[in-house]
Amino acid sequence: MCGFIGRILGPGARVLPALTAGLPWLAQRGPDAQCEWCSPGGEVELLHARLAIVDKTAVAHQPLTAAAHGVTVAFVGEVYNHQEIRKELVDYSFRTNSDTEILLALYAYYGAAGLSRAKGMVACAIVDTNRRTVLLFRDAVGKKPLFVARWAGQVLFGSSLLPLVAVSGADVETADDAHRRFWRQEFIGPPGSVFKDAESALPGEALLFDFSGRLISRTRITPDTFSTGRVTQHVEARANLRKMINLSVRRRLHDNPSPCLLLSGGLDSTVVAAAMAEEARKLGISVRAITFGAVLPFLNDEPYARYAAARLGLPLVTVAPARLFPSSRAIADTCERAVARQDEPLGMLSYMLRYQLIEQAKNHSRIVLTGDGGDEVFLGYSQTSGWIAPPDAPPRSVAGLCGPPLPQWMSRWGREQNSASLLGHGLAVLDRASAEQGVEVRCPLLDWDVMAFARALSPDLLLDGGRSKGLLLGLLEDWPRWFVYRRKRGSTVNLRWAWLTSRFEGLRDMVERSAQERLTELLPEPLRRPARQWQTREIFHNFPSAWKLMVWSAFERRWSEARSSKNRSFLLVNQP
Fold first, then answer.
1. Which of 66, 106, 141, 204 supports an S-S bond with 220, CB 3.0-4.6 Å?
2. Which domains, ranges and CATH numbers included, belong to the chain?
């Protein structure tokens, strides 16, 4: 999925590690090429790790420069409408077929405002050597992370935090409340981060710095929204939504020779699967689906995934639980490997299943589509009334962290699901589980236009028939009722029970005493003793806490490694 880091050196004086010191924590996001760039005067540096998807030739390696305009870009993500924009910018002399160069062209023609025309997932740094500015931008849905830190007299930025720690030359510390936020929420969401003096850019934010590291402006850039006009009828809403999801899927199938779908058998992924099957036939490409197998027959959604795949004519790969954990020791090894891919710590157990499924999908494709976002955008989680604010609730701001403005009628709980929870939990899990394995995940239901359309509808239309995700259900109106109107079972691959068979072998070894000391006040009493003294039943009954403690321990190890990076290549910064 690519990764990048960079820095504005500022007027400070010190000997700093070279940007290549961050490669051990960056290269896994972009295994195909790692390239550096430095401004002519040495004020700004960029390092990019590339996962080649669109134009795979070396001429499209990043950082990519438009010499005629004095502009260089390092970019993470995908511009899905890059072919449409390319046809419009007929006067621009393109050197590549990559979507990366579209960002250079838009900036050269329209400045920062031109980024509003890019439909997709974008986190980028654009260096303008003529104006002597650095523009950091994160798209308005926020699919890809973008961090900014001020350490040791520099402004550091990039798609990951740990490589920034490795190149900072500073004794970076965690934020005072980071461990409490992690324990309470299972993530550390924007605008802060796990580290002091480091922040996560919010979706849509454009931060403009000069070459001395001074912040000039902080604005929000959002895409141009496709309008369907006011919709008041259920039939019209379904028809428009179907067209928009198909367009969203079609854009995500371009530059994707072997598309793969994570098909749970649930509503969201089935709607995406139906659109994929239809659009793939038009494009003349084949689509493959992947699902989890059941530990015991009929105890999860595997039969529904099999039915959906067969109905749509999609080859289905079933990942058997025995393949995930072939031995008792393999559970600890898999968990250790998975949490080592995290940048900031993520304590939700759902991360493990997502990581494992993408790990298996990687054997079939580097690009994976999912149904993520359906619950948030179309009012899921079986909370039909919980999404709507009480009549006497005070008016709330329509601003949200992710995507287009939220409707006035949405409850505080609903706003939380579509803001901090989606950004810090859902999108963070997706990014760490996929990009850190060199896989790109595309989410058609989190398309800006799809979200804008849904948020412009009344709750009666979204909850068509008074049902959770009723509007999406309507897209499967010709499917059997036993498939559409059922309670989702999810996956029966239960990590707690699977690990119990080996008495949690390996878990105790992954817990650091320093992590226990940091989190003591938050731990249940049995987990305050040294981990080697934990009894199996104590771990089982306190497994969520034991898991979060293990995750934080793994983070502390990675943080320590980044602070004491053994990469000895250095950059000498002149004394003032």
1. 204
2. 3-223 (3.60.20.10), 234-379+426-484 (3.40.50.620), 497-561 (no CATH)
